[in-house]
């Protein structure tokens, strides 16, 4: 009798223990699944996704008449007092990465609670861009220090306001400059507009265009955004064709200081 009673008691205790374990585990899982993403979490996700070495090689191979194989290299450069991330960005032809035609500092931070967006990405000119060439390729002890980077933030160029993409879309975040764009005087423009989309697997789509007073596009690709993807594995044929591609000098000069131009 004693043995049976002990056995039943142990079975009940074990049952209670297992039920408690299931309930606690379920509560922890529910808490993890329902944990809200903070404003700074969104900014961190966007900043992390922007960083790295990316190419438009796949797009260029499919549509060489409208897109070049460009290299976009991005890495953290500093952090502001308020927590905003400062990122160095440069773009160059795949074949000549040591000669970037575009250099910028991006500042990534959450939108304020009053705004209808999640993350702000602001673009700034660099006070002495020559000193920053190949910034991300250099050892950290050979780069400008974070406090120097902050001091070299120059003219504010644009700000893009990103929102989380709706469920079911390919992107994670997408957005653009405000309707009226930002002042821009390059190549006869009076203002410019930009769009940015952050996709899964650190893919980034960018589209910059300049317009004159009459609303005519005077620089920038007309067909659609550049699609930058993390370093691809190139076939022998791709490598051979890319090694034999060298943009004309006149084109390099036209490209300098802006994004890829298209007639």
Write up what this structure looks like:
- The chain has helices spanning 2-34, 39-50, 57-62, 146-151, 236-243, 249-255, and strands spanning 52-55, 70-79, 85-93, 102-110, 119-126, 153-164, 171-176, 182-183, 191-199, 204-211, 217-219, 226-230.
- The protein is α+β, with helices and mostly antiparallel strands and 263 residues long.
- It has a ten-stranded antiparallel barrel.
- It is globular and about 90 Å long.
Provide a brief overview of the structure:
The chain is an alpha+beta fold.
Roughly how many Å apart are the termini?
96 Å
Strand order of the largest sheet: 1-2-3-4-5-6-7-9-10-12
Assign a percent range to the helix content: 25-40%
Number of helices: 6
Stretches where pLDDT is under 50 for at least 5 consecutive residues are 24-34, 239-246, 248-263
What percentage of amino acids are in beta strands? 25-35%
Average of per-residue pLDDT values: 84
The tally of beta strands, per DSSP, is 12
Oligomeric nature of the chains: single chain
Secondary-structure-based class equals alpha+beta
Radius of gyration: 25 Å
General form? globular
Element order: H for helix, E for strand: HHEHEEEEHEEEEEEEHH
Largest sheet: 10 strands, antiparallel, barrel
Indicate the topology.
Elements: H1 2-34, H2 39-50, E1 52-55, H3 57-62, E2 70-79, E3 85-93, E4 102-110, E5 119-126, H4 146-151, E6 153-164, E7 171-176, E8 182-183, E9 191-199, E10 204-211, E11 217-219, E12 226-230, H5 236-243, H6 249-255
């Amino acid at each position: 009798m004693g043995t049976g009673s002990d056995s039943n008691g142990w079975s009940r205790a074990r049952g209670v223990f297992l039920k408690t374990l299931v309930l606690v585990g379920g509560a922890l899982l529910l808490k993890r699944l329902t944990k809200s993403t903070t404003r700074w979490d969104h900014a961190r996700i966007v900043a992390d996704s922007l960083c790295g070495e990316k190419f438009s090689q796949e797009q260029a191979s499919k549509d060489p008449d409208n897109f070049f194989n460009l290299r976009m290299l991005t890495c953290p450069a500093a952090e502001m007092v308020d927590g905003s991330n400062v990122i160095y960005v440069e773009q160059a032809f795949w074949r000549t990465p040591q000669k970037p035609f575009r250099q910028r500092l991006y500042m990534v931070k959450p939108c304020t609670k009053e705004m209808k967006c999640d993350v702000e990405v602001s673009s700034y000119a660099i006070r002495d861009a020559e000193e920053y060439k190949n910034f991300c390729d250099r050892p950290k002890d050979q780069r400008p220090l974070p406090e120097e980077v902050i001091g070299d933030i120059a003219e504010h160029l644009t700000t893009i306001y990103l929102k989380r993409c709706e469920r079911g879309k390919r992107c994670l975040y997408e957005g653009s400059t405000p309707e009226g764009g930002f002042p821009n005087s390059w190549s006869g423009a009076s203002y410019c507009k930009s769009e940015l989309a952050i996709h899964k697997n650190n893919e980034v789509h960018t589209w910059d265009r300049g317009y004159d007073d009459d609303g005519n596009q005077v620089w920038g690709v007309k067909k659609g955004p550049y699609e930058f993807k993390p370093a691809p594995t190139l076939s022998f044929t791709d490598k051979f064709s890319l090694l034999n591609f060298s943009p004309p000098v006149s084109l390099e000069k036209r490209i300098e200081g802006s994004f890829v131009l298209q007639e």
